Amino acid sequence: MAEESRLTLSVIKADIGGFVGHVSSHPDILDTAKDKLNHAKENGTIVDFHVLRCGDDLELILTHTKGCDNTEIHELAWNVFSVCTEVAKELKLYGAGQDILSDAFSGNIKGMGPGVAEMEFVERKSEPVVIFMADKTSPGAWNLPIYRIFADPFNTAGLIIDPKMCDGFSFRVLDVKEGRCITLSCPEEMHYLLALIGTSSRYIISSVYRKTDGEIAAVMSTQKLSFIAGKYVGKDDPVAVIRCQSGFPAVGEVMEPFSFPHLVEGWMRGSHSGPLMPVPFYEANPTRFDGPPRVISAGFQISNGRLIGPHDMFDDPSFDSTRRIANDISEYMRRHGPFQPHRLPEEELEYTTLPLVLEKLKDRFQKV
Ligand SMILES: [Mg+2]
Asked: pTM of the full predicted structure?
C-alpha cells in the first residue's frame, strides 16, 4: 500500500479575539500561533504550516501524514487557539476566546467551536491548491462559486475540454436543519442540486469529488452549522480548500466565480445580506458596518508536504471592478437599514438577540 505517501491538508480556524472590535486579528496572536506551530514542525507532528488571518479569524494551514480527524492534529490546533486566547485576554481583544466553546480538548476539534476543512490525497507530480477564507459570512456563501467551479461549463472550460472532468463531479450537501446529508451527481442531477443549494442558509455543499475516480476535489468547513449536543451554535466564517489543474479545474477557473460579488448572509451582527468582496490579504479588514463580507484566497504549490507559497490570489487588478461593484451593492443594500432583504428574515435571526427584543413586546399584542 502507498498509504505512507498520503498527505493531509488541514485548514483549522477560529475567532479567538478581534482587534479592533471584529475588524482584524492582532499581530501578537499570529506570532504566537507561528511559534507554537514552528515547535510542532520541529518535533515532526506536522510537515509544514502557514498562518493567515481574514478579518478577525485566525487561520491555521497545516500539512501532515496523520489523516483527517486526527486527534493529535486537532489537539495541536486546539492548544494553539488556547494559547492565543490567553494572549487575546491579556490584550483584552474583543470576544477573546469566543470560538473556544469548551474548557478542555475532547478528542476532536469538530463541535468544539473552531471550523475545519481537511482533505487527504496522494500528492501529484504538481499539486496546486487554492484555499479560500471568508469573514462576516457563513458556509452557504461557497454554494454559488463551488457550483460554478465544478458544474458550470460557462465558468469551467475543463468540464468540456478535459476528458478527466467530462463525467463531472459529485457534491455532498449538508441539510443543516435536519442534520442529514445527500450526495448528488452532476451534470445529470444538476437541477436537483440547484433546487437544494439555492437555499444556501439550509443546504450547504460540504465536499466535492471527481466522478471518474472518486478523488477529493474540494472540501468546505461546515462544523458550526451542525447541532452540537442538541444546541445550534450559529453561523461560522467559512474556509474552502480546492485542488486545481490536471483533471481538476484550472486555477483561473477556480478564481473566476469570485468576480461576481454575490449576496451572502453575515455582515453586521451576522444578521444582514451583503456582497462577498474578494480582497488581497492586507485588505481583509471589514470596517464599514463590519463589512462588507470579505474573502481572501491563498494559493500554494505543495511539494513533498511543504507549502510553497502563499500567493495572494486576489491581489490582482482584474478583481478591481468586482470590488467596485461590491462597494456599489453595499451602498444600495445599506440604504435599506433595518429592512429586508438587507436585514435577514426573522427565522434567520432566531439565534441572535432579536428574540429578546420581541419578547419585550409580547404582552402588548392584542387579538384583531
Ligand atoms: Mg470572523
From this structure: 0.96
